[in-house]
Automatic annotation (TrEMBL):
Belongs to the SfsA family. This is Sugar fermentation stimulation protein homolog. Pfam families: SfsA, SfsA_N. Residues 83-222 form the Sugar fermentation stimulation protein C-terminal domain. It comes from Rhizobium herbae. It comes from the Bacteria. HAMAP family: SfsA. Residues 13-79 form the SfsA N-terminal OB domain.
Amino acid sequence: MLFDRPLVPAVLIQRYKRFLFDAVLEDGSAITGSCPNTGSMRGLTTPGSRIWLSEHDSTTRKYRHMLEMVEVGGTVVGINTGLPNRLAEEAIRAGQVGDLHLYSMLQREQKYGRNSRIDMLLTDPERGRAYVEVKNVHFSRASGLAEFPDSPTARGAKHLEELGDMVEAGHRGIMIYLIQRDDCATFRICDDLDPLYAQAFLRAMRRGVEAFAVKCRVSPQQIAPDGLIPMDEPACADL
């Protein structure tokens, strides 16, 4: 995925209210912009961090600039939670996620489960249905290891339960963890920050849900899926 326009470098002053940030552009201008990530962004909001912004000219937008990437420890990390579905679809179509590219039809945002919408519904006359949920990952606190979630997510646990329901109904349930950074060689479920999600993940796996971790190449010019990385089993599997 190439960005439509070159990203603008800046320095982060602060991120606040979950959806706003202040920064200083290279010409010294102080700006306020929107943050397309309402999560905790743990480890990615340090004042003084180098960041990259997209620019938007629409008169309907309150803020011209939107936060897209943060540099941490020499690694550029994508933070826009509006991109993972698009990137996961690119990975599927490129044959990077198991056999999912063999399904003949892909539909986005379809209703299913308990008043939910699945990110992608794959269908095929021979293979049936595959329900695909995508989670954005950018958290890493140990070298080479990506983790999800970075804070408790009851909604995420609900999605795992619903995927398990789809499997028991005779379909496939797929969870894709889309990692918007390229310095990680393995992935794990973060059971110490959200033990309930880790337990829901294990229940889902035992019910037949499949999980894939997709790493991306990330730069201010583009974000591109770069294949699968191994997934470590949560420590709570031993409990």
